[in-house]
């Protein structure tokens, strides 16, 4: 079955960096757009970034543009999010999500930014 | 594109119907003839999951008591008979221009 497993979260100080990973299985990874969606504690869902099949088309939310970089490795069925210059308001659960319709979600990984 | 849901909370007796509205700030009808409006639900302690895609299509495994309707900028999710397992927060979402979500509607059982 479709599985998406995120890792790489943790506690980091403002201005710090983290790299999230998402390892997938149960589907042909190279055939799907992939996204990162986040949810701040007690808040709603916010799209962060998406990447097309081969990485040629990438978009970011204005809130992370210039600080976050999405990438993928189709040979390893993996999605990544490099997060630099982290701010308090980046604190959230980050979900790895498959496809244009966001049909399958991982369990999420917690990123906490605090001094 | 801004997505606006009403109501933001809903308390329903089991067996009764429920309805959630979603309005987009511009039309979600794309030039391919499809309307890119989705509904997701996040049950307590879980990741969000897709309920409906392209307005009215139920995703795999979604019970037929869920239905979606609407066009252009106005959409509705209906539950014909609410069950205890339907508790959660429901989000509408558009994908015609990157992605945006509504604020969420929290459904509780009376």
**Could you give a short account of the major beta sheet of chain B?**
7 strands, mixed
What is the CA-atom radius of gyration of chain A, in angstroms?
13 Å
Largest sheet of chain A: 7 strands, mixed
Oligomer: heterodimer
Q: Any low-confidence stretches of chain B, pLDDT <50, length ≥5?
A: none
Work out the helix count of chain A: 0
What proportion strand of chain A?
over 45%
How many DSSP helices of chain B? 0
Judging from the principal axes of the Cα atoms, what is the shape of chain B?
Answer: globular
Number of strands of chain B: 11
Shape of chain A: globular
- What's the alpha carbon Rg of chain B, rounded to whole Å? 13 Å
Most extensive chain contact?
A-B, 19 and 21 residues
Secondary-structure element order of chain B, N to C: EEEEEEEEEEE
Structural class by SSE content of chain B: mainly beta
Element order of chain A: H for helix, E for strand: EEEEEEEEEEE
Query: Low-confidence runs of chain A (pLDDT<50, min 5 residues)?
Result: none
Beta strand % of chain B: over 45%
Summarize the structure.
The complex is a heterodimer of chains A (115) and B (110). With 115 residues, chain A is an all-beta fold. Chain A is built from no helices and eleven strands.
Topology:
The complex is a heterodimer of chains A (115) and B (110).
Chain A: E1 3-7, E2 10-12, E3 18-25, E4 34-39, E5 45-51, E6 58-60, E7 68-73, E8 78-83, E9 92-98, E10 104-105, E11 109-113
Parallel strand pairs in A: 2-11
Antiparallel strand pairs in A: 1-3, 3-8, 4-5, 4-9, 5-6, 7-8, 9-10, 9-11
Chain B: E1 3-6, E2 9-12, E3 18-24, E4 37-42, E5 48-53, E6 57-58, E7 66-71, E8 74-79, E9 88-94, E10 100-101, E11 105-109
Parallel strand pairs in B: 2-11
Antiparallel strand pairs in B: 1-3, 3-8, 4-5, 4-9, 5-6, 7-8, 9-10, 9-11
């Amino acid at each position: 079955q479709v599985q998406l497993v995120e890792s790489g979260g943790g506690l980091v100080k403002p201005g710090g960096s983290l790299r999230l990973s998402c390892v997938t299985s149960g589907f042909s990874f190279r055939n799907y757009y992939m996204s990162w969606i986040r949810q701040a504690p007690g808040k709603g869902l916010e799209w962060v970034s998406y990447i097309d099949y081969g990485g040629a088309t990438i978009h970011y939310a204005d809130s992370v543009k210039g600080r976050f970089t999405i990438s993928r490795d189709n040979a390893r069925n993996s999605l990544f999010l490099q997060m630099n210059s982290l701010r308090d308001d980046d604190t959230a659960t980050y979900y790895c999500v498959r496809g244009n319709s966001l049909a399958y979600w991982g369990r999420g990984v917690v990123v906490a930014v605090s001094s | 594109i801004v997505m606006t849901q009403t109501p933001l909370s809903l308390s329903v007796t089991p067996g009764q119907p429920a309805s959630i509205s979603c309005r987009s700030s511009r039309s979600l009808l794309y030039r391919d003839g499809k309307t890119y409006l989705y509904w997701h639900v996040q049950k307590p302690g879980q990741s969000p999951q897709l309920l409906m895609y392209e307005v009215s299509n139920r995703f795999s495994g979604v019970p037929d008591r869920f239905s979606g309707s609407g066009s252009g900028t106005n959409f509705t999710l209906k539950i014909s008979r609410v069950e205890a397992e339907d508790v959660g927060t429901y989000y509408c979402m558009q994908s015609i221009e990157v992605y945006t979500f509504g604020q969420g509607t929290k459904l509780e059982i009376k």
